[in-house]
Design goal:
- By secondary structure, the chain is an alpha/beta fold.
- The protein is built from 21 helices and 21 strands.
- The protein has three domains: 179 residues, 2-Layer Sandwich (Nucleotidyltransferase, domain 5); 154 residues, 2-Layer Sandwich (Nucleotidyltransferase, domain 5), CATH 3.30.420.40; 232 residues, DHBP synthase, CATH 3.90.870.20.
- Belongs to the NodU/CmcH family.
- It comes from Candidatus Seongchinamella marina.
- InterPro entries: ATPase_NBD, Carbam_trans_C, Carbam_trans_C_sf, Carbtransf_dom, NodU/CmcH_Carbamoyltrnsfr.
Length: 612
């Protein structure tokens, strides 16, 4: 039984292939189209999935879509009517798109699929539609290691739901309760993302990274004016301060007045005010998540919790939930956003619609997240020869040994190995690596490799069996979705004067033995690397440990600001040549920057990408 599943037309379109209940392939369209957060029909990702599974289109039994557009259209109409005549401009902007395309999504999907398959629309397999939050919940529970668990989904908005609670047991997934639009923790966080000058739907993680530089001086004001938070974690927002329900922006003039000025303009200097705003909304978000989780645990009396939806990518809140929450353990879907909805609706079709049984697995069934394309040595050599690249081909052991040596010399290495990751995190398949012990590595990577803001922290990859030696973490974190504190014996004491520093000044103080991955609050977003799911990356960490006695590396995604993570050898080589990376490990081929032929330099290259 082959199920092809799709998310598209809103954020981060993706395709997934499920064969007899097993994930065969999953990928976001942006990785192929090279358009960040591409929301168009995932034609290229879909073709990849079919090729990876060696499945022809006529062997597909069902095509599943992650959302119910008619319900979403109902919500839009009811919202505009509720706020009329305010919001008429927004109505005029949205309606033509809906009336032309989204309202007739079934026919649009049939046309797109027929074009790919070279068949008539009537020959397209049966279409199935799941509700948005049902798809999120399914993506969280079905791949998880639990037989029975509560599921908490939090995002901006689906059709109506913004927060939903479910009970997963065996192969069943039952809705329990939900909070509806316009009251949304995800949209509240996005409102502050917008107000502090970052781009909504992509800048939220910047706000999370900025928070430790500030103090939560506005948290009480948020809870007093913007968000009525009940003891059970449910909430209502005072919509007079927001414009997203009926306008074209997230916040309005009342919001500006409340916080003492207009939104920060994108690319304007960051001030202590933005840092304090970030700290405040982060503190409020964590409080809401903890209260909701406590209520879910009390009402449902289960030991485990699964998370999905965009808010589940808030790894700081996840870390607090794990440490302070009532559950024995939590599992977070690594593709928690809309892309993961494609995976969820595939599982819903398999278990709910087709009534197939489910058996939970130890660990999970996500295969470490490595669900995208891989490239053979023949593929890689063919491309490198076509551009006249200079390289050395090594054995596996030679590769790990030489790259580890390069990293000890403060070199930055592009690491392109095996299958590409599904979801927003690079997990050692498409990564840029550095030495975490270096005091300058964070600034070098931000300014010369990633071309992004200096305050942005980098994440550590650590051998799973050594993680607790360095971090206050006693369980796996394979998907880089938990923030944990650094072990106290790895920290460096700072002086009284350094403790009094504010804002970005904190960035320049080394706080640990691994300063390149230690945030200013002694925290880190940890990825535990497991020999079972990524033996090559684990072997590199092991080799680095043999040389340095440190089983940790800096791991950031293989891309530059505004560009999707690289997918192909061509993407990787282009990124390598246009940045100040020192070496590229492309499969078993190692390339040194100084050995390469001149690259056609495009002076406008950094400007051609949409600044995120």
């Amino acid at each position: 039984m082959n199920i092809l599943a799709i998310s598209a037309y809103y954020h981060d379109s993706a395709a997934v292939l499920l064969c007899d209940g097993e994930i065969i392939a999953a990928a976001q369209e942006e990785r192929f189209s090279r358009k960040k957060h591409d929301a168009q029909f995932p034609a290229l990702a879909l073709q990849y999935c079919l090729e990876e599974g060696n499945v022809s289109f006529d062997a597909i039994d069902y095509v599943a879509f992650y959302d119910k557009p008619l319900l979403k259209f109902e919500r839009l109409l009811e919202t505009y009517l509720a706020y009329a005549p305010v919001g008429f401009r927004s109505f005029l902007t949205a309606m033509p798109v809906w009336l032309k395309e989204k309202l007739f999504l079934k026919d649009l999907l049939r046309r797109e699929l027929a074009q790919i398959a070279g068949c008539k629309k009537t020959e397209v397999p049966q279409l199935l539609f799941g509700e948005h939050h049902e798809s999120h919940a399914a993506s969280a529970f079905y791949p998880s290691p639990y037989d029975k668990a509560a599921v908490l989904c939090m995002d901006g908005v689906g059709e109506w739901a913004t927060t939903s609670v479910w009970l997963g047991e065996g192969s069943s997934l039952t809705p329990v309760w939900q909070i509806d639009f316009p009251h949304s923790l995800g949209l509240l966080y996005s409102a502050f993302t917008y107000y502090t000058g970052f781009k909504v739907n992509s800048g939220e993680y910047k706000l999370m990274g900025l928070a430790p530089y500030g103090v939560p001086e506005y948290a009480d004001l948020i809870l007093e004016k913007l968000l009525h938070l009940k003891d059970d974690g449910t909430f209502r927002m005072d919509m007079q301060y927001f414009d997203y329900a009926n306008g074209l922006t997230m916040t309005n003039r009342r919001f500006d007045t409340l916080f003492g000025g207009p939104p920060r303009q994108p690319e304007a200097p960051l001030t202590q005010r933005e840092m304090n705003m970030a700290a405040s909304i982060q503190a409020v978000t964590e409080a809401v998540v903890l209260k909701l989780a406590s209520t879910v645990h009390r009402e449902m009396d289960v030991d485990y919790l699964c998370l999905a939806g965009g808010v589940a990518l808030n790894s700081v809140a996840n870390g607090r939930l794990l440490r302070e929450g009532p559950f024995k353990d939590i599992w977070v879907q690594p593709a928690s956003g809309d892309a993961g909805g494609a995976l969820g609706v595939a599982y819903s079709a398999w278990h709910n619609y087709l009534k197939n049984p489910r058996t939970s697995q130890s660990g999970d069934s996500m295969r470490g997240g490595y669900l995208g394309p891989a490239f053979s040595d023949t593929d890689i050599r063919s491309y490198l020869d076509s551009v006249g690249a200079q390289y050395r081909q090594l054995s596996d052991e030679g590769l790990y040994s030489q790259v580890a040596q390069m990293l000890t010399q403060d070199k930055v290495v592009g690491w392109f190995q095996g299958r590409m990751e599904f979801g927003p995190r690079a997990l050692g398949g498409r990564s840029i690596l550095g030495d975490p012990r270096s005091k300058t590595m964070q600034s070098v990577m931000n300014q010369k490799i990633k071309y992004r803001e200096s305050f942005r922290p980098f994440a550590p990859s650590v051998m799973a069996e050594k993680a607790s030696d360095y971090f206050e973490l006693d369980r796996p974190s394979p998907y880089m979705l938990l923030v944990a504190g650094l072990q106290k014996n790895k920290r460096i004491a700072i002086s009284g004067d350094q403790e009094q520093m504010f804002g970005i000044e904190k960035l320049h103080v080394a706080r640990s033995e691994i300063p390149a991955v230690t945030h200013v609050d002694y925290s880190a977003r940890v990825q535990t690397v497991h020999q079972e799911t990524n033996p090559g990356y684990w072997a590199l960490l092991h080799e680095f440990e043999k040389i340095t006695n440190c089983p940790v590396l800096v791991n950031t995604s293989f891309n530059v600001r505004g560009e999707p993570i690289v997918c192909t050898p061509e993407d990787a080589y282009r990124c390598f040549m246009r940045t100040e990376m020192d070496y590229l490990a492309l499969g078993n081929f190692v390339l040194a920057k100084g050995d390469q032929p001149d690259w056609a330099n495009d002076d406008d290259w950094q400007n051609q990408f949409e600044l995120d």
